[in-house]
Structure formats: structure tokens, C-alpha cells
Amino acid sequence: MPIDTPRRARRWRKAVVRACLAGVILVVAVVVIANVVVVARTSDRVTTDADGLEDAQVAIVPGSHVRADGSLGEVVAERVEAATALYEAGTVDKVLVSGDNGTTTYNEPDAMRDAVLAAGVPPEDVFTDYAGFSTWHTMRRAREIFAVETAVVVTQGTYAARAVDLGVSAGIDIQGYAIGDDGRWVRELLARVRGLGEAIWRPGVTGGPEIPITGDGRASWATPRGSVHRELSGTS
Questions:
Q1: How many domains does the chain have?
Q2: Which of 37, 54, 156, 217 could pair with 127 as two cysteines, CB 3.0-4.6 Å apart?
Q3: Domain DUF218, which positions (predicted)?
Q4: Which domain covers residue 82, as residue numbers?
């Protein structure tokens, strides 16, 4: 006797609904677990109090949007200001700005560096990383290219836990200085899933010759300015 077509269709729809529901539950579980792990592993390393930070070699400033005229966007301007304040207070000895310079028309590191210099930090104490394409790239290159051992990563509270977790995974004794909240929490909740994966599997990043953070920061500056795909000190 043939199976009733409407009944078969109902069974198929129920199976699809169950599969979709299971998929949603799995995704939610992964996101929740990743966030719990990242926050738990970094809660004692993140602070909003500059006076609570231990002295470190360098303030690491991850890149963010730079406007077409070369001026800093609000997020990265806040980071640069806080990092220079840490330098002035003697909490850090150097400032490392790390961002995206993947094309000849977009250059986060030079814009950040110029802002740090304008704030009065001596040129020899300002380092640039032109291959900071993500937080993981920034942290691993800080350790492998710039030989950073101790650091304070300066970023908004939204991103601080993930940045610190990646820094620890890269081999840095790192603290997070959280300087406000830009409100992009939904995006960050998802980004922590990728970040935890990077912390576990440690994917490769752009290499290059070592430029120790204990040396002169000007050795890391691009001459002339341009894309990271051109011949730059500290990148390949």
C-alpha cells in the first residue's frame, strides 16, 4: 500500500524542523562556551584602572578604522590617547601600533603612529606593525617579530578579553586596559568563537625580520610609506 503523500510530507517537514533546531542549539552552545572560556581565562588580567596595571615593555594598540583623509576614527583615537597616557605615566616603555596596511590606499599604522608622535612620544619609542590584519596577527607578530615579553593591550572593554586571551596564547605576559565600550557586543560574541579557535590552533601569520621592542622603533617604519606588499621593515 503506498505511503500517504501528505503524511510523508509532514514527516519530512518535522525532520527538517528538528535538524534546524538542533543546528541552532549547537551554534548557540558553541558561542556560549567560547565566551565563557575566553572571559574566565582573562578576568584577572583585564582592568579599567590604569593605576592597577603593572609596568610592561610596551602598550600594544590594535588598529581600527582610519578615515579617508588619514585622521583616526573614534575607536582607534581613544586607544591611542590611552596608550600615550600610559607611556607618559611610565607604565610602559614603548608603544606598538598595529593595523591594516593591506593596500596602498589604506594605512592604519602610519596614521596611528603620527598621532602618537603628535602626542609627544619620542620617535625611537614608537613601533609600527603593518601586518596587524587581525588581533591574532597583532599578538603573534608582537611576540615573534618584535620579541615582546610583557605588554598592555589598550582597547575597548568590548574586545579586551579576546585580545588578552590571544596575547597569552601568543606567549606574551599581557594585561588588558579596557577604555570604554563601543557597543558592538553581538559582533564580539561571535568573534570570540574564532578567537578561541586561533588561541587553540595558533594559525600562521605574516613573518619578517625581528625588530626587538627594546631597540629603536624607527627601524619598523615603512620607507617610503605604502602597502604592506611593498618592501617594508618587519614584514614580508
A1: 1
A2: 217
A3: 58-172
A4: 42-220
Residue 113, amino acid: R
Burial of 152 (0-12, 13-18, 19+ CB in 10 A): buried
Which H or E element spans position 92? strand 92-98
61 by Cβ neighbours in 10 Å (0-12 / 13-18 / 19+) ranks as: buried
Give pLDDT tens digits for 112-144. Answer: 999 999 999 999 999 999 999 999 999 999 999
CA angle (59 as vertex; 140, 235 as ends), nearest 5? 40
Nearest Cα to Cα of residue 101 among 197, 232, 204, 210: 232
- For 71, the grid coordinates are 585622521
Residue 148 lies in a domain: yes
**Of the candidates 130, 53, 52, the residue with the CA atom closest to the CA atom of residue 97:** 130
